[in-house]
Every structure is written in structure tokens, then in C-alpha cells.
Design brief:
By secondary structure, the chain is mostly helical. It has two domains: about 15-80, Winged helix-like DNA-binding domain superfamily/Winged helix DNA-binding domain (Arc Repressor Mutant, subunit A), CATH 1.10.10.10; about 80-220, Four Helix Bundle (Hemerythrin (Met), subunit A) (Up-down Bundle), CATH 1.20.120. It is built from eleven helices and three strands. Helix 1 crosses helix 8 (about 150-170), helix 2 (about 40-45) crosses helix 3 and helix 4 (about 80-105) runs antiparallel to helix 10 (about 195-220). It is elongated.
């Protein structure tokens, strides 16, 4: 597919912004499985050199969204429903473990910070600002990982979240999802504030299972790029 000219992004955020844009295009079906990702074309489209493009493709490959072979162009990977389910199953168990330990180990200051962040996010739900709520959502889960006070578990959760992040973002395109997400977070926060580790784990696990279903619903409703082109 031909590359659209995009505004030049700021130095220091170039790779992150490209990863986000390309990942969302893949998840949303704008770039279909098997589509070639030409470094020269992408560099021109984003207004950057080929070096940050290569870095972005490496990160996308780490997410499992792109396949790269030596001396060959990168192509959009095929992500099966079963693979996506497995990724979210692992994410659910990791977040459950983080929430369980957070309920046991968070300091009073950490609990207060989590609760305050959660309460403040209610305004984002009322206004329906998806991008701002998404940024809050990342911060919320980061506090949860930090609150488990297990460096290794935090690393595993963060790495797995990186792999599923484009699909987790997709959930917020489902109607009514912001309010439901807030309610699910509320159950996690309430359990942590009570020090109820098992309830916190269950609430976190249920939350990710619901996220998985919402993300899958959105992805399945998006036509593939070639189907869109056929209709033009």
C-alpha cells in the first residue's frame, strides 16, 4: 500500500510515535497480514530517516505484529485468534498476581495515590475523552505493577502488556467501554484498599478477561484493508 505523508514528529518521540501509529493501523485493519512495510516508503511518509524506521519495526516485531527476515522486507504478521487469547490469558494471570501482592504490600501512600488517580479518572469517563483515559489507564496499571513490590513480576507484566498494548487500546473504541473499565478498576482499588488480596486478584483477572473480549470484538468488527479496497 502507498504511504501517506505524515507530519514530522518531534525528536525523541519519533520511534514511539511510529510504533503506535503502525500498531494501531495493523490492529484496525488498515494494514493487512502480508502487507509489506517498506523502510524507504515509511521514512518518507513519517518525514524521518530509515534508522528510526528500523527501530520501530524491531519493536513491532517484538510485539508480534511484524515478521522480519534477514535481507527481506518486513511484512505485517498474521495474529490468530488463539494466539491473541493465549496472550491475554497470560496477561490476566500476571495482573492478578500483581493485584494480589499490591493488596498485601502497598504502603499507605501508594494506596492513596492509586485511589486518587482512580477517582480523578471519573471525569474522563463523563467527558468521554478516550485518549486521555487511555493515558490514565496506562498509569493505573503501572501503579499496580509497582505496588506489587516484585521487580521480576513487574518486568514480566510490563513486557506482556507491551505485546498486547495495541489490542488493549482497541477496547476503548467499543461503545460504553470507558464506564465499564472504570467500574472494573473500582473493584480492584476497593479490594486493595481493604487489603483483600484474593478479591483484588479476582477483580484484576476478570478485568483483563473483559478487556480481551472487548478488544477481540473491536478487531473482529474491522474489515481487512483488502476488503476495503475491493469496495472502492
Amino acid at each position: 500500500m502507498s504511504e501517506r505523508k505524515r507530519p514530522l514528529v518531534r525528536t525523541g518521540t519519533t520511534v514511539d510515535q511510529m510504533v503506535r501509529v503502525l500498531a494501531d493501523e495493523i490492529v484496525h485493519g488498515t494494514r493487512a497480514p502480508g502487507d509489506k512495510l517498506d523502510e524507504v516508503g515509511l521514512a518518507e511518509a513519517f518525514g524521518v530517516s530509515r534508522t528510526p524506521v528500523r527501530e520501530a519495526l524491531v519493536q513491532l516485531a517484538a510485539m508480534g505484529l511484524v515478521q522480519r527476515a534477514p535481507n527481506r522486507r518486513s511484512v505485517v504478521a498474521t495474529i490468530t485468534d488463539s494466539r491473541l487469547t493465549e496472550m491475554f490469558e497470560a496477561m490476566a494471570e500476571l495482573e492478578a498476581a500483581c493485584a494480589r501482592f499490591a493488596a498485601q504490600r502497598m504502603s499507605a501512600a501508594e494506596r492513596h495515590a492509586l485511589d486518587r488517580l482512580h477517582r480523578d479518572s471519573a471525569a474522563l469517563v463523563r467527558t468521554g475523552t478516550k485518549d486521555d483515559y487511555e493515558a490514565f489507564n496506562v498509569r493505573f496499571h503501572t501503579l499496580l505493577y509497582e505496588g506489587c513490590h516484585s521487580g521480576y513480576l513487574r518486568e514480566l507484566a510490563t513486557a506482556t502488556r507491551f505485546r498486547v498494548s495495541p489490542f488493549r487500546r482497541a477496547q476503548f473504541r467499543v461503545a460504553g467501554r470507558l464506564g465499564k473499565s472504570w467500574s472494573e478498576h473500582d473493584a480492584i482499588v476497593t479490594a486493595i484498599l481493604r487489603g483483600d488480596s484474593e478479591a483484588a486478584a479476582q477483580a484484576a483477572r476478570s478485568h483483563v478477561v473483559t478487556v480481551s473480549a472487548a478488544s477481540a470484538h473491536f478487531v473482529s468488527s474491522v474489515p481487512l484493508a483488502q476488503d476495503r479496497c475491493a469496495g472502492l
